[in-house]
Amino acid sequence: MIQPKSDEYFMREALKEAQKAFDLDEVPIGAVIVSNNRIIARAHNLTERLNDVTAHAEMQAFTSAAEFLGGKYLHNCTLYVTIEPCVMCTGASYWTQLNKIVYGAKDPKRGISDLNIKLFHPKTKITFGILEKECSDLMKKFFNSKR
């Protein structure tokens, strides 16, 4: 029997996407969407390259996964994202009806968890802290290079 891949495995794949964003001088956030233990979408921030404030990693991944599945709902899918989703991405995740969201590091400035509002779909499970240090360190490295 094939062993299912772990949250750490998929978060490492999201970190690879975040590194691609870093290399493009984009805020280094990466995402993958998994269905049936298989990555069906990969994405990273493209806001600078596309000159589009909505081109967050999560939004790119939602579009790619929906295209792959042939429908707008991402039932039985898990989003792995290196940094806690913002309000926009959380709202979009609600409409996709994801089964689960796993994020690496919290984002105290733009993340959803400290806002005391419920935007996640009620059936969506949330897990955080997976490879938190690695996810956080890449963001710190990026912003330290800007100062």
Please outline what is shown here:
The chain has five helices and five strands. With 147 residues, it is of the alpha/beta class.
Architecture blueprint of SSEs:
Layout: H1 7-23, E1 30-35, E2 38-44, H2 47-50, H3 57-69, E3 77-83, H4 87-96, E4 100-105, E5 125-128, H5 132-146
Parallel strand pairs: 3-4, 4-5
Antiparallel strand pairs: 1-2, 1-3
Strand numbers in spatial order across the main sheet = 2-1-3-4-5
Average of pLDDT: 92
Poorly predicted spans = none
Spatial gap, N to C terminus: 50 Å
General shape:
globular
What is the overall number of helices?
5
Total beta strands:
5
* Beta-strand percentage range: 15-25%
Biggest β-sheet: count, sense, barrel? 5 strands, mixed
Helix content: 40-55%
Using only C-alpha atoms, the radius of gyration works out to 14 Å
SSE string: HEEHHEHEEH
Q: What structural category characterises the helix and strand content?
A: alpha/beta
